[in-house]
Amino acid sequence: MARSKKEGWLNILDCCRLATPFDTATLDALRVTFQVALGATLLVALPGVAVGYALARARFFGKSAVETVVSLPLVLPPTAIGYLLLALFARDGWLGERAIGFDPGILFSARGAILASAVVSFPLVARSARQAFEQADPRLERMAQSLGFSPWRTFARVSLPLARRGLVAALVLGFARALGEFGATVIVAGNIPGRTQTLSLAIFNDIQLGDDRHAMQLVGLTTLIAFALLWTSERWLAPRRRAESSSR
Amino acid sequence: MNPTLCVSLQLQLAAFPLNVEFETSARCLGIFGPSGSGKTSLLEAIAGWRKEARGRIVVAGRTLQDSAGGTNLPLHERDIGYVPQDALLFPHWNVEGNLRAHSRTTRRAAPADFERAVDVLGIAPLLARATDSLSGGERQRVALARALISNPALFLFDEPLGGVDVALRRRILPWLVRLRDAVDVPIVFVSHDPSEVQVLCDEVIALERGAVCARGTPAATLRTLFARHERFENVLEGTVVQLGSGTARLDVGGVDVHVAREGLEIGQRVSFALGSDDVLLALAPPEGLSARNVLAGVVESVTPLALGSRIDLVLASKSHVPLSATVSAEAVLQLRIAPGRNLFAVFKASSCQLLSPQPRG
After folding, report:
1. What's the pLDDT band for B1 if we cut at 50, 70, 90?
2. Dist CA A231 CA A229 (whole Å)
3. CB B47 within 8 A of CB B88
4. Which of B30, B31, B141, B271 could make an S-S bridge to B204, C-beta 3.0–4.6 Å?
5. Å from B327 to nearest chain A CA?
């Protein structure tokens, strides 16, 4: 089933190849980029939103330490994160084949690229999600509970819907960050065309090889995608700002 | 069966500690006091919104909190219908969504409860509206209905008339009276408006800097609290027994009182306010007078004020209706006003401000 789906995708890509001015390498990089960014976004969505909510609402011992750890990937050099992941998933690492009994298939694979991008975009998603939750009046949650909502139901029916725009924006931001990921990805997943070579890795490759024309083409493509993403997320947030200012 | 409420709470507030202890079987208990006296904190603590509050809360025999015994029910198990000052409607649902919010929670509500609440508070035309399109009074009525539908064991109303202007207050007050009469669970009603408290409540607790400073029937408690004020707002309640061309005759605890007719109907229960400075006192029933009300009474107490005195009377009737008048110091001397003296209170029908003609339907 999955196989035929994959073939379907490939057929669509084959059609694109015929219809676009882009060559196979570019289209491969484009496909890998979106696969990686989408996978990373799906991977961080749940923990990012959960941690964001905990930071926005919960009071617990050592909260500031947790806050700092969450934000750490934001300031650490991505290569350092990549190296840590590499050490973690290496054959003798804590999560390597020896320790868990099977090969998790992280290193030099698309999975590794997804994991690396996810780790790097996690702080952005968690911090934006936290802001989204903080903007909602916590008294509304208490009111829901006083009306008989269990805490979990309050979260699902009140907290999440109230923060939904901010949460979508958080995920878009995480997706955008994953899209441009380079340092961690190249160390964990390598730079394998068609498998782990994303647009940013392909640009690096072209510059190394002196193929300036192709590099410029990829830069243009990346700019276009980034523009579309930012524009969409801004548009998504805009109606909320208007509604907020008119209701006050 | 008397619904009972036992509260004993300690909570450190920014400026002073809240330390309140009372037991009551009042149907509607008023919490009265100036802004910043801890009224809202008290309600929030009862609702469980103040995690740091310590003490004991028992509603109709069910212990919600007992810090000494280790009981502390979470918010959603307290069965409390809290209506805060700002209504707190859910912005992502329309009015009907807000009213049906809890419908799939553990707190069952029969469809009849929904219909009744919509009817009691007159909000049928608002059901499809977005909450941000509602006026202040409408928001409050929706919040009251939402609390009513949630079928709680105790209502907490935090100045439901606080955010609205005086004209609107007068229009919402009757809805509150209706709500009070429609439910048989106790209501705790926070207010700093003496007239509201007198209309709605059968007992009042006055707070001052987090502590109970007076307690009793609304009229008596407020008279004590307002001992130093020049003007006291009498609030009386009666039934319309006769309609004249311009005035209506009310039976106020066995005393006939004439008030402006203002669309009243025979048999209606009506509350009205009468300022103490609108009441004249006479030694004998005056004749040839335009004022419609001349009522015999006995002086109960004389309280000296900065400019005159407040005379608290009890009207001559079987139910001892209290009435206060403010007069000058000279008048007290000249009429030799002292406790036990028989006097006549005189006031115009038009001085009586109707507070709550009960809405029809």
Report:
1. very low
2. 5
3. no
4. B30
5. 47
**B74·A145 Cβ contact <8 A:** yes
Helix and strand numbers (H, E) in chain B are: 8, 21
ipTM over 0.85: no
* Other CB atoms within 10 A of residue B332 CB: 17
What pLDDT shows up at residue B90? Answer: 95
Could you tell me if B252 and B236 are in contact, meaning their C-beta atoms sit under 8 angstroms apart? yes
**Section A42-63 average pLDDT:** 94
In B, which residues are within 8 Å of A153 by CB distance?
105
Query: What are the helix (H) ranges across chain B?
Result: 39-47, 95-99, 111-120, 136-149, 166-182, 194-200, 218-225, 329-334
Paired with B315 in beta bridges are: B297
**What's the gap in Å between the CA of A157 and the closest CA on chain B?**
9
Mean pLDDT of chain A: 87
Q: How far from chain centre, in Å, is Cα B224?
A: 17
Cβ pairs bridging A and B (under 8 Å): 62
As a whole number, mean pLDDT of residues A15-35 equals 79
Token code pair at residue A36: 């990686």
Residue of B48, B90, B146 with shortest CB distance to A158:
B90
The residues on A that touch B, with CB distances below 8 Å, are 137, 139-140, 142-151, 153-154, 157-158, 161-162, 243, 247
Q: Is A221 left (phi over 0), alpha (psi -120 to 50) or beta?
A: alpha
Confidence of residue A104 (pLDDT cuts 50, 70, 90): confident
The mean pLDDT value for B247-254 works out to: 92
| Residue-wise pLDDT tens digits, B269-311 | 888 889 998 999 999 999 888 999 999 999 999 988 888 899 9
A164, amino acid identity: R
- Interchain pair A145, B105: CB under 8 A: no
Residue contact B105–A148, C-beta within 8 A: yes
SS3 at position A217: helix
Residue A200 CA to residue A181 CA, distance in Å, equals 7
Integer Cα distance of A129 and B72 in angstroms: 31
